[in-house]
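Lab notebook, bench 4. We co-purified these components, and the gel suggests they stay together. Before we commit to crystallization screens, I want a quick structural picture of the whole thing.
Request: model the full complex, all chains together.
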Amino acid sequence: MTYVIGVTHQKGGVGKSTTVATLGACLAEQSGRTLVVDLDPSGNMTSGLGYHPEEMEKSIASLLVGQEVFANVVKSTSLQNLDILPSNPDLLSISRHLFSYKGYEFLLRDILRRHAGNYKWVVVDCPPTLGTLTITALTAAQLAMIPTQLEFYSLQALDVVFKLINMTRSKTNPRLRYRLLVTMYDRRGRFHTDILTYVRQHYSKALMESVIGFDTKVRASQLAGVPLTMYARSSRAAKQYRELAQELEAYVERQ
Amino acid sequence: MTYVIGVTHQKGGVGKSTTVATLGACLAEQSGRTLVVDLDPSGNMTSGLGYHPEEMEKSIASLLVGQEVFANVVKSTSLQNLDILPSNPDLLSISRHLFSYKGYEFLLRDILRRHAGNYKWVVVDCPPTLGTLTITALTAAQLAMIPTQLEFYSLQALDVVFKLINMTRSKTNPRLRYRLLVTMYDRRGRFHTDILTYVRQHYSKALMESVIGFDTKVRASQLAGVPLTMYARSSRAAKQYRELAQELEAYVERQ
Ligand SMILES: Nc1ncnc2c1ncn2[C@@H]1O[C@H](COP(=O)(O)OP(=O)(O)OP(=O)(O)O)[C@@H](O)[C@H]1O
Ligand SMILES: Nc1ncnc2c1ncn2[C@@H]1O[C@H](COP(=O)(O)OP(=O)(O)OP(=O)(O)O)[C@@H](O)[C@H]1O
Ligand SMILES: [Mg+2]
Ligand SMILES: [Mg+2]
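Here is the predicted assembly.
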C-alpha cells in the first residue's frame, strides 16, 4: 500500500522543499522505494536533488495534462530507492488553467494510483500558495505535513491552511489528516524556545515529536545539488530527518 | 512626485513583508509621508503593523475591483506619516479572477495616481508568486526591489523574476528598474560571506549597497505587532533599514 504525504504551507520559506527532498531521501534509505513529486513551479526541490528544472523537457506539468506518460517523466536520483517526478517552468501556466478543468483535483491522485503502486512512499512538494497545485496534492494524500518555523508569520498563516485541509476533506478526500513539523529551530536565546512551549500546548495532538534544528549544512547541500543524507551524513539535520522518517513509519503502522 | 517601490521575489521567506513594513517606517520617519500597500492574501505585513487581516472588512481587494473608495480603505498606523492599504482574505479570490479583467495590470497604478498624490513614497508587498497581484504592483512601480537571501534557492529563482520584470517593462511599464537587497545576512561562518562576494561580482550594478543582517529583534517585533523602528529602535536591523532608506533617497534624487 502506497502512503502519500503532501508537504504544504502558505507561508514562504518554512522548509517545504528541504523537507520533501531530505525526508524522501531518509525514507528511501531506511524504509522502501520512495517517489518525490515537485509541484512547485520554482523547481527548488528538483534542483536540490541535482537536476535543472529549466532543462527538464518532460515534467509533472505534461503528466498532469495527459501529454506524457509516467514512465517518460519519472527520473532516478543519485540515491538508490529514490525517484523523482521533476518540475519545470511549464507548471506555472498549467496551474492557472487547471481551475477550468473539471475534476482537476483528482489528476495527481489518479496518476499515482495507476503508476506509483510499487512505491512504499510518495512525498509531494507544494508552492507557497493554496491554489490548484496544492489542492491536487492534498486530494492525493493521506497526510498533509505542514513545516512551520516558530515565528509569528508562519503560525499566523496556519488557520488558512487548516481551512483548506478541512475543505479538501469535505469535498475530495475524507481520509486526509494533518501534522505540524517544527523546522529551523534555533536553540540560541529564548525566542524559539518560548514559542515551542506555546505550540506544544496549542497544537499538541497534531505536532510531530521530531523537531528539525537550524543547520547550515542544509544550505550547503542545496548549493551542491546533493541530498543532505549524502552530503553531510552525520549532520544534526540529517539525523533529525532520519528520526522523523522513523516516527512516520510508526505513525503509519498504527493507522 | 510620488515614488512607488514594488517588493517582490518568487522565493518564499526572503524578507519581503519585513522589508515593506520596516523600510516604510524608516521612510515615514526620515523622508516624508509614506503609504504601504499589502497585496499578499496572507496579510503578514498588515499584521506586522498591528492590524488583523481577517477583521479588515474593507481592504485593497475591494479597492482593486472598485467596490470601495480609497478614503474608506486607507488606515493610519502607530507611526506618524505612515498609512497602510491593508490586505484581507478576499484578496485570494480576487487574484484568481483578475486575469479575466481586461487591463487589470493598470488597476493599482491608476488608484495610486488618483489618490496617492500627497504621499512621497509608496511601498507595495507582494505574495511569493509571480501572478496577477505581482504584475499590478510592477506596473505601478518605478522600482522593483528584490530581497534575497544568500542561499541557492533564493538566487536560483532570480532568473524568473528578471523575466517578469522585463516582460512588464515591454508590455505595461517601460520605466521599471530593479534592485537586489541582501537580507538575513548571517556573519557567522563563511557560507554567506562567500556567496556575498559572488553576488557582488555577478549583480554588481543592480545590488543595493545596504545589507540587512540576521537580527532576532525582527521576529520579536512582528510577534508584538509593532514596527521594528519603534519596538527596537537601536537594533542592528533597524539601523540597516534606515541606511537603506537614505540610500534610496539618494538613488531617487539622481534619477
Ligand atoms: N533546517 C534548516 N537549517 C538551515 N536552513 C534551512 C533549514 N531548512 C531550510 N533551510 C533554508 O531555508 C530556506 C527556505 O527553505 P525551503 O526553500 O526549503 O522552504 P520552502 O518552504 O520550500 O520555501 P518556498 O515557500 O519558497 O517554497 C532555504 O534557503 C533553505 O536552505
Ligand atoms: N533581518 C532579519 N533577521 C531575522 N529574521 C528575519 C529578518 N527578516 C525577516 N526575518 C524573518 O524571516 C521570516 C521571513 O520573512 P518575511 O515573512 O518577511 O518574508 P517574505 O518574503 O515576506 O515571506 P513570504 O514569501 O511568505 O511572503 C519571518 O519569520 C521574519 O520574521
Ligand atoms: Mg519550496
Ligand atoms: Mg510576505
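The interface with chain B takes residues 10-14, 17, 42, 44, 47-48, 54, 89, 92, 96, 99, 127-131, 151-153, 156-157, 159-160, 186, 189, 191, 195, 216, 219-220, 222-223 of chain A (CB under 8 Å). Worth comparing against the SEC data before the next meeting. Residues 187 and 193 of chain A are 7 Å apart (CA to CA).
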